[in-house]
């Protein structure tokens, strides 16, 4: 068993391996595509690639056959030795692979402080075809669907009804406008980002640091595709963004609606908008909904997303 650093010579081969499992590891694909420091392929003695891991503080991983490999003594022993001196603060990956790594870390005396479990959701074939058909109808619109920063207005949304995405009720509320955001929008989005991280990201074992939150927000605004829903006063009522953009997949995250604007279909509209932009860029959207968040899973299901796997984030 050996752990081979992913350098420029190894990059193409590694990405080709990951492409087969990309929907489970978009962040890892993006990390390697953009440089991939501290990333390694896990190879058998016969030089067969068994997985890929990034061992920065946040551990990203792709171990497709984790269930069977956890019974391979030599593999477990080698992985345990490799991880013994690594400082891991978070394990982030497909559920079976993450729990396999958690088991190895437990044998090293490291127990997670908190674990979040998610449903991995992708578009059904019918929903994808519907978006593709809609994209063809709007093909004459001169907008290049790039997955990167730079502010521009996406669309003027129709009035959103209470529970519009889930129930189709017609009770009209307030007119909103979808806006694509850039770095100049950091101040306006900061309250939503703080609330999002406090409610959806930070585990009980972590304390929020506004400076870190601001840094994260600015990075997202510079490198990801961010959309917000403005109310009639020009204030952001909801936001969503890509978390990572891979080769054939793009991950949606950062979905948050201010309490006063919930149950109006705001988040659903933004996720739908991002899904359309992703499909228009010849990629497929994937997102994760936290287990127990039935409202989010129901809303995403109404858009055509279906659960196709599990995802785990463990904090150390």
Model description:
- Helix content is 38%, strand content 28%.
- It has 316 residues and is an alpha+beta fold.
- It folds into two domains: 2-111; 122-309, Gcn5-related N-acetyltransferase (GNAT) (Aminopeptidase, 3-Layer(aba) Sandwich), CATH 3.40.630.
- The protein has a 13-stranded mixed sheet, with helices on both faces.
- 38% of the residues are buried.
Salient structural properties:
13-stranded mixed β-sheet, 316 residues, Aminopeptidase, 13 strands, alpha+beta
Offer a concise description of the structure.
It comes from Treponema socranskii subsp. socranskii VPI DR56BR1116 = ATCC 35536. 38% of the residues lie in helices and 28% in strands.
So what's the CATH class of the largest domain? Alpha Beta
For the secondary structure, the number of strands is: 13
Q: Work out the helix count.
A: 11
CATH topology of the largest domain: Aminopeptidase
Instruction: Compute the separation of the termini in Å.
Output: 26 Å
The percentage helix is 25-40%
Number of domains: 2
Sheet with the most strands, sense and barrel status: 13 strands, mixed
CATH superfamily of the largest domain: Gcn5-related N-acetyltransferase (GNAT)
Strand/helix succession: EHHEEEHHEHEHEHEHHEEEHEHE
CATH architecture of the largest domain: 3-Layer(aba) Sandwich
Structural class, judged by helices and strands? alpha+beta
What oligomeric state do these chains adopt?
A: single chain
Strand order of the largest sheet: 1-2-3-4-5-13-6-12-11-10-9-8-7
Q: What fraction of the residues are assigned to beta strands by DSSP?
A: 25-35%
Radius of gyration: 20 Å
Average predicted confidence as pLDDT: 89
Low-confidence blocks of residues: 148-173
């Amino acid at each position: 068993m050996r752990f081979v650093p992913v350098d420029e010579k190894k990059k193409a081969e590694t990405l080709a391996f990951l492409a087969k499992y990309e929907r489970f590891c978009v962040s890892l694909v993006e990390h390697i595509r953009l440089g991939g420091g501290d990333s390694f392929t896990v190879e058998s003695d016969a030089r067969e690639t068994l997985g890929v891991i990034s061992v920065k503080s946040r551990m990203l991983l792709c171990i497709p056959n984790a269930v069977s490999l956890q019974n391979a003594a030599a593999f477990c022993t080698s992985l345990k030795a490799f991880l013994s001196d690594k400082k891991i603060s978070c394990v982030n990956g497909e559920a079976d692979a993450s729990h396999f790594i958690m088991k190895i870390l437990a044998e090293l005396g490291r127990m997670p402080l908190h674990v979040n479990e998610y449903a991995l959701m992708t578009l059904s074939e019918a929903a994808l075809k519907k978006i593709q058909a809609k994209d063809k109808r709007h093909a004459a619109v001169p907008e290049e669907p790039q997955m990167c920063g730079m502010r521009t207005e996406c669309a003027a949304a129709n009035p959103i009804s209470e529970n519009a995405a889930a129930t189709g009720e017609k009770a009209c509320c307030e007119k909103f406008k979808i806006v694509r955001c850039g770095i100049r929008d950091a101040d306006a989005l900061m309250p939503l980002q703080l609330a999002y991280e406090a409610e959806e990201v930070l585990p009980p074992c972590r304390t929020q640091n506004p400076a870190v939150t601001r840094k994260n927000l600015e990075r997202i605004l510079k490198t990801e595709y961010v959309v917000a829903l403005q109310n009639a006063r020009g204030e952001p009522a909801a936001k969503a963004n890509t978390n990572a953009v891979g080769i054939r997949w793009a991950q949606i995250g950062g979905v948050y609606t201010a309490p006063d604007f919930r149950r109006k279909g705001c988040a659903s509209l933004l996720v739908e908008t991002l899904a359309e932009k992703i499909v228009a860029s010849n990629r497929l959207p994937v997102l994760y909904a936290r287990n127990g968040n039935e409202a989010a899973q129901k809303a995403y299901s109404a858009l055509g997303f279906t659960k196709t796997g599990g995802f785990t984030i463990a904090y150390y």
